[in-house]
Design a protein that fits this description.
The protein has 333 residues and is an alpha+beta fold. The protein contains 12 helices and 5 strands. The chain is elongated.
Length: 333
């Protein structure tokens, strides 16, 4: 817990005109769907939680009314990115980042084996949910949203929240609450259509200009790299060109917004591929969807940035990138 209180030639040419039509189309779609539902379900989106913890988070995420499985998942991801060996400079430990004193007081034996182990997710994840609910009771009479106040208490301590009459004027705490609430939308399965990204067309326009560029592992498109990219380097640069900063690696980019279904894809959505279809942390490839079942991607060494089909056995899912979702992603653990 980061707590203030503890311190390809012709094909390419043909594809360009195809994509430019889609670029125009995505703006039209964006205009037509403004105001549509954005989700907010209490169940987890596909693969957002590693399979080993899926049932645990789904179950304990309903422990009290102040939390839900998507919120609990977002909190764990914000704390550790699901790393069981995470250790902070403040001696916060494990997947839920408990400091020793807090663990001693509030850690629970989640798996019923007679041991409370801060490094064991089977104890730490239930303890995070239990502590959240405990804090929610502490701050239930504080003005404002009880879940927001609970998250603030998790980060800065309940007495600061009570004294402040809400979220304290501490930058770390305010960011903590805002980020987890934004990430909650990424971990929740949408209940309705997901609003299109206004920046999607610009991201596509950037990527289509790179068609035919040779692949480079670790490539970010810089001059010293000959303007070459790998898969996540391309998607990162494409969205950065329209003012959205994504993480460098594909499996973190998956959490940059909500997850439309295959039949709901729009141009500009990021599409992901993995050898483990149950775990977003295992994602190994990403591209930018352009419509018609195709994406622009930087596929592998020896290939060039090109159009590829997305309907392959390793297709994992998609993310509709949002500014809030991207800003919420943790950069360090």
């Amino acid at each position: 817990m980061r707590r203030v209180w503890v311190a390809a030639g012709a094909a390419v040419a043909a594809g360009l005109s195809f994509v430019m039509l889609l670029v125009v189309g995505v703006y039209l779609v964006a205009g037509n769907l403004v105001g549509g539902a954005t989700g907010g379900a209490k169940t987890l989106a596909k693969g957002t939680v590693p399979a080993a913890y899926q049932e645990l988070v789904q179950s304990w995420g309903n422990l009290c009314s102040a939390i839900n499985p998507a919120l609990l998942a977002a909190q764990i991801y914000q704390e550790s990115k699901w790393r069981t060996d995470a250790l902070s400079h403040a001696d916060a430990r494990g997947i839920a980042q408990f400091i020793p004193a807090t663990w001693a007081a509030y850690g629970v034996d989640g798996d019923g084996d007679g041991d409370r182990d801060v490094w064991d997710p089977q104890d730490a994840i239930p303890s995070a949910a239990s502590y959240d609910c405990h804090l929610a009771k502490y701050v239930k009479d504080v003005p404002g949203n009880v879940t927001d106040n609970m998250l603030a208490a998790y980060n800065s301590g309940p007495y600061r929240v009570i004294d402040a009459g809400g979220i304290p004027a501490l930058t770390e705490t305010q960011n903590y609450v805002r980020n987890i609430r934004a990430l909650e939308k990424s971990f929740a399965a949408p209940t309705g259509r997901v609003d299109p990204s206004e920046q999607a067309a610009g991201a596509i326009a950037y990527a289509q200009k790179k068609l035919g560029t040779p692949y480079l592992w670790g490539g970010n498109g810089t001059a010293d790299q000959g303007g070459r990219f790998d898969c996540s380097g391309l998607t990162k640069a494409a969205y950065e060109s329209v003012g959205i900063k994504l993480p460098r690696v594909a499996n973190d980019q998956y959490n940059a917004g909500p997850h439309p279904g295959r039949d709901e894809l729009l141009p500009g959505d990021l599409v992901f591929f993995s050898d483990d279809l149950t775990n977003s942390r295992a994602i190994r490839h990403v591209g930018i969807y352009v419509g018609g079942g195709y994406m622009i991607d930087a596929p592998r060494t020896g290939a060039v940035i090109r159009f590829d089909p997305i309907d392959t056995p390793d297709y994992f899912g998609a993310t509709r990138v949002t500014e809030d979702g991207a800003k919420a992603l943790p950069t360090t653990v």
